[in-house]
Amino acid sequence: MQTVKRLLVISDMHGQIDAFNALLDKVNYTMEEDLLFLLGDYVDRGNNPKAVIKKARELEKQGAVTLKGNHEAMMEKALVDRDLLAVSHWAQNGGAQTLSSYGLSIENVYKEIQDGTLTLPDALQDDLEWIQQLNVYAETEHYFFVHAGVDPEKEISQTDQETFLWIRTPFFEGYCGEKTVIFGHTPTMNLHDSSAVFFGENNIIGIDGGCVFGGQLNCLELPSKATYSVN
């Protein structure tokens, strides 16, 4: 068995397949020597969420660790629970682009859920089943990988899934654990006025460069803490 030489972490691709592929090329990712962590938000807002999910699933088969983001959770609530309020919430957060990449419109999906007539294409149904079984965090001896962060007041075992997917300020300001937490979700522009990777003084590293908002897609390399990005 090959020894892993690097851990690589990417988050918040948001349907931007070209940037995702370009970043993997830039870091010279190889499944033999690298362990890749993807921290969620594959879908919504960008032009090809379906392709990003396909790529994430291929990478997972090669050994990558794939986690769930809050946008996958919104998609799940809309299309699995078939909750009309959830469909509206998802639509406000880029869900239309995701459905469009599978050949559907948000208006029709809303109406068909209302009528009880919604049938999803096989490809979307299959991807939804994959999304449903995604974990919300992963950890190694020194690092904790998660989409949004952790609750500094609670044990991991006592924390609900929503927190791992949605938390912001209480985590940024309150975390003081021994493991370094690597997270996406909050664009780093909101943490230090730059799209570059954010290295917090309290053992947290934010990597969401806000690519879909005109920023950049970041990759963090560990343990070196080298960073790579594409615009």
Question: How would you describe this structure to a colleague?
Answer:
This protein is an alpha/beta fold and 231 residues long. It has a domain at 6-70 and 133-138 and 205-230: Purple Acid Phosphatase, chain A, domain 2, CATH 3.60.21.10. Helix content is 37%, strand content 16%. It has 10 helices and 10 strands. The chain has helices spanning 17-26, 49-61, 70-79, 84-92, 95-101, 106-115, 122-132, 161-166, 169-174, 189-192; strands at residues 6-10, 34-38, 65-66, 137-139, 143-146, 180-183, 198-199, 204-206, 217-222, 227-230. A hairpin with a 4-residue loop joins strand 7 and strand 8. The chain is globular, with a radius of gyration of 17 Å. The mean pLDDT is 96.
Quick overview of this protein structure:
By secondary structure, this protein is of the alpha/beta class.
Strand content: 15-25%
Shape: globular
Number of strands: 10
Name the CATH superfamily classification of the domain at 6-70 and 133-138 and 205-230. Answer: Metallo-dependent phosphatases
CATH class of the domain at 6-70 and 133-138 and 205-230: Alpha Beta
Gap between N and C termini: 35 Å
- pLDDT averaged over residues: 96
Alpha-beta content class:
alpha/beta
Q: Numbering strands along the chain, what is their spatial order in the largest sheet? A: 3-2-1-9-10
CATH fold title of the domain at 6-70 and 133-138 and 205-230: Purple Acid Phosphatase, chain A, domain 2
Query: What is the radius of gyration computed over CA atoms, rounded to a whole number of angstroms?
Result: 17 Å
Helix content: 25-40%
